[in-house]
Amino acid sequence: MMLKIKLKLIPLSFNNNLQMKNITSVFLISSLAMTTACTTMKTTENTATEIPGSDATMANNPFMKKSTLQYQAPEFDKIKDEHFAPAFEYGMKVQLAEINQIANNTAAATFENTILALENSGEVLRRAQIVFYNLTGSNTNPELQKIEEKYAPIFAGLSDKIYLNEKLFTRIKAIKADNLDAEEKRVLELYTTNFEIAGANLSPENKVKVKKVNEELATLSTLFSNKLLDARKNGALIISDVKELDGLTSDEIAAAAADAKAAGHDGKYLLSLLNTTQQPLLQNLKNRATREKLFKASWYRAELGNADDTRAILERQAKLRMEKAQLMGKKSFAEWKLQDQMAKTPENAINLLARLATPAVETAKRESDEIQALIDKQKGGFTVEPWDWNFYAEQVRKEKYDLDENQIKPYFEVKTVLEKGVFYAAEKFYGITFKERNDLPVYHPDVVAYEVYDRDGKSLAIYYLDFYTRNNKNGGAWMSNFVEQSHLLGQKPVIVNVFNYQKPAEGKPSLISYDDVSTMFHEFGHTLHGLFANQKYISISGTNVPRDFVEFPSQINEFFALEPEVLKNYALHYQTKQPMPQALVDKIKQAATFNQGYSTTELVSAATIDMNWHSVTNESQFKPTLEFEKAVLAKYGFNLKEVPPRYHSPYFAHIWGGGYSAGYYAYMWSDMLNADAWDWISTHGGMTRENGDRFRKYILSVGNSVDLNQAFKDFTGRTPDLKPLLKNKGFIK
After folding, report:
1. Based on CB atoms within 10 Å of each CB, which residue in 16, 232, 428, 591 is the most buried?
2. Domain ranges of the chain
3. CA distance 602 to 298
4. What is the pLDDT of residues 239-267, one digit of tens each?
5. 9-227 — its CATH code?
6. Residues 259, 471: Cα–Cα separation, whole Å
7. How many CA atoms lie within 13 A of 428 on its CB side?
8. Residue 685 has pLDDT above 50, yes or no
9. 523 labelled catalytic
10. CA-CA distance, 344 to 669, in Å (whole number)?
């Protein structure tokens, strides 16, 4: 199963690392490191600070007031590029004034006049940021990129003015928790922790140093993301002779021709790059030279010594992160980063990776031997290379399981998978329903919208989907909120899922692979986590949880894709509308553990690279990017050249463009949780409403309002066990 990474916008109050989901790459918002919670009140108690008023230039700015659309869904028909910068400027002025009011309040510190006031600060700024960063990820342009680069350090500076405000932190520490309810106590605890993690206890001298580092890191993160977007676009492979595309379907060739024409290469064929190392088309391309060119276009995209080269940026980021951590009193960035995660320490994360690495590499070696045997049988005369793996692995799969991907795809049409698969499973397990909304404005013609209704028939949320890849869209797949749930603010969720499926040629069906199907179920798992949020405060609502928990609800939702009742409902041939034959279904299930050595090795090796970049304790330990990565892979036994990491350091967007630095292990940690939880569900009746209500109650609806290790135990009755995951992957019986 391919990994997905999602994007989630986090309020200032807590996790300043964006959550993102990925199947193929990652769209990470680095600059959102400091988004703020919505404002519904002004705190003026015993303080002379005044909130700035707006001027005439802001009168028609759509971010000055709440959207009039249902649940405050964005008014995309009114929002223009020129609205963002003025909204940012005004929003920052207002929030700083609000913060000063809170910090300078002479009344005794209470939850209401300090934490609640913080929670509700920055309304205009938040509205503008949350739309802006969704657009820069999914539908950017040069103007938006310029704005993003300009404001990244400015926003980082604003965050520091809040988190490093000594008066503000003094008030937070003075709040008495005696009369607070459970959720308020949790919010106070997390505010205190997050201020401490941000450096609130530092000396004035070190606060100045941390501010400088944060501003530079914010700039570098944005530069990395923009360079990588260009590298992805400029690295696309241009093919002149259609014969070189032998093995692709006529629809895939037509799409490649259309993409080439759109890029100014009429009469040629363009193979665009996803952010992963491996590219999906490698599975079908018969021409070995074409496969090699496509793989190398992917691998070398950001290390060519041109304007798109990211190595100098990431090396500087790694050194600055170490410097920041040591200013905070920690040995490494990973130690600093993991202190509020479920894993707690880098050692615990590395231990999990090591427990997976050994059986994964051993299994991958056996898989490699099988592939090499097939190549030799066919008298290929060469040793398997990375660009050969998927092509021959698919043949091995056909041979072992009589399963051909091209047999499967006609049964997976995008909208059918969504409505009769993803939505159907959610209705059966949780009781929710969906209705398409054609009346809501969208940010691109490809975007569709739905209204979501709860099990009691009451409206629950608005949900957008953006299916198809574009050259101005970051690679990968993710979930994000336009509006986050909060009982305090009377807000219901407005959520978007973004994908990068290949758009079919005009008039052709949008057919996707089973891996793409899995991605859709995965992303919707993040959506469920947001839909069922049930908190008073945004800070702890929905997906505002530790990174190594946030992928748990998404990854467990992938299991529904193969549930018999669900599969027979959506796996319908796009022409005949007939369900997938049972014999083909059986083959898919029998092949479930196929290639798990490879897929797990590429993920664990990437996570190990990430953890090592961020575990450095002395600058002398750093090496140039390629040398550093090579040494890490060798040290930890990732010695199969034909199994490269899923992300090569120069295009590892998760860790250099956003919030997964020292956090990519979270996918494996969450995978352990979801495998164990699914084992519990399977042994307690499976896909029943009772189990769905239980999972919603203990996992999906709690946000970060409780200890999440305890939440898992409340659901399963036990602490997480790695054995179900090892069994699912076929590593143990």
Report:
1. 232
2. 9-227, 236-299
3. 15
4. 999 999 999 999 899 999 999 999 999 99
5. 1.10.1370.40
6. 9
7. 19
8. yes
9. yes
10. 12
Residue range 36-75, pLDDT digits in tens = 222 223 334 454 567 777 677 788 999 999 999 999 999 9
Distance CA 410, CA 39 (A): 49
Identify the pLDDT of residue 325: 97
Q: How far is CA 669 from CA 149, 344, 479, in A?
A: 33, 12, 19
- List the Cα angle 332/335/337 in 5-degree steps: 105
Q: Which has the closest alpha carbon to 288: 244, 349, 226, 251?
A: 244
What is the C-alpha radius of gyration for the chain, rounded to an integer number of angstroms? 25
Other CB atoms within 10 Å distance of the CB of residue 304: 13
C-alpha closest to that of 593 among 408, 726, 728: 728
Looking at 252, 315, 484, 523, which residue is catalytic? 523
Residues in CB range of 564: below 8 A, 6 or more apart = 585
For 492-511, how does the pLDDT look when each residue is reduced to its tens digit (9 = 90+)?
999 999 999 989 988 999 99
Query: With b meaning 16 or more CB within 10 Å and e meaning fewer, what string describes 626-662?
Result: eebbeebbeebebebebbbbbbbbbbbbbbbbbbbbb
Question: What stretch of H or E contains 466?
Answer: strand 459-468
Contact between 62 and 443 under an 8 Å Cβ cutoff? The reply is no
Q: What are phi and psi of 208, to 5 degrees?
A: -60, -40
- The pLDDT of residue 592 is 87
Per-residue burial over 234-268, b = 16 or more CB atoms within 10 Å of its CB, e = otherwise: bbbbebeeeebbebbeebbbbbbbbbbeeeebeeb
Tokens of residue 12, six digits: 């200032």
Strands 19-21 and 478-483: unpaired
For residues 465 and 415, the answer to whether their CB atoms sit within 8 Å is no
**Contact predicate 40/461, CB 8 Å:** no
Tokens of 92: 């920052």
Rounded to 5 degrees, what angle do the CA atoms 628, 634, 640 make? 120
Strands (E), 309-388: none
